[in-house]
Amino acid sequence: MIRRRALLATPLLAAAAPPDTRAEWHDTARDRRIPVLIRLPDARPPHPLVLISHGLGGSREGLAYLGEAFRAAGCIALHLQHPGSDADTPNLRAAVADTAPALARLADGAFALDQAARLWPLRADAIAAAGHSFGAWTVQHWMGQRLGRVAASFREPRIRLGIAISPTPVRRLAPAFAMAQVDAPMLHITGSRDTSPLDQTTPQDRTLPFRATPDGVPSALLWLEGADHLGFAGDARFGTGTHARVAGVAVMFLRAMLLADQGARGRLLAGARGLLRHDDRLETRAIA
């Protein structure tokens, strides 16, 4: 009897922890192939969805700690890999200087949301995006930050919340003008050693998008003392000391802002006490 019960239980145990799925999606309209990594939750649909965008030279394997935390919270975590600015790109500095890879990243988001809606029952009111460095740039523009001298908006209205880790400073435009069309909650995450490996960006520069967010738009800034740029990326070679705090506050922010979790809102307003260290800080704006 014991053996029979164990055998009967095996499929249920397997179903309780869906494996990560790696696939390659083809956007026929652009003839572009996009590698993805999918983390499905053990929860009843419809599901919240979080798009996750890697930094320059990264891949769908990056920010695993964040994807795993969102899956544990009941969300589908959909990691996108952006050809032209990923690990397979031969000249990363040239990719930064070229507008084509940046614009391709923005279009990848719309395509991925179309695909996700065909594959899974989604909560349309609970779709978010998170990214690091060039991925943060991508998220900022999905959320409505105006782009460059042309001041174009690439707002993706299906995305209801953004998380920008190592946000990209506003350049070539007045910050308030650049951020004027951001109309949904955003969490900005940086730290005291979050300088750029490519230019002179300082950690203080990375706080500018948060400071310039329009009044009345719920937003938060998480500052982690001692945190550096590569430590956020998810590669264990650069340290994992920030991961629990970043993932914890990111999930808390999503629960509070999209899932109507009043407990999470209270913890957010209390500065995430018990999760952060004494010299970290969490600022909030327009979160009542």
**CATH topology, anyone?**
Rossmann fold
Mean pLDDT over the residues: 92
**Major sheet: size, sense and barrel closure?**
9 strands, mixed
The shape is globular
Describe the fold and architecture.
The protein is α/β, with parallel strands linked by helices and 288 residues long. It has one domain: Alpha/Beta hydrolase fold, catalytic domain (Rossmann fold), CATH 3.40.50.1820. It contains nine helices and nine strands. It has helices at residues 2-15, 64-72, 92-97, 99-119, 134-142, 175-178, 208-211, 243-258, 262-269, and strands spanning 21-27, 32-39, 47-53, 76-80, 122-132, 161-165, 186-193, 219-228, 281-285. The protein has a nine-stranded mixed beta sheet, sandwiched between helices. The longest helix has 21 residues, at 99-119. It is globular, with a radius of gyration of 19 Å. The relative contact order is 0.12.
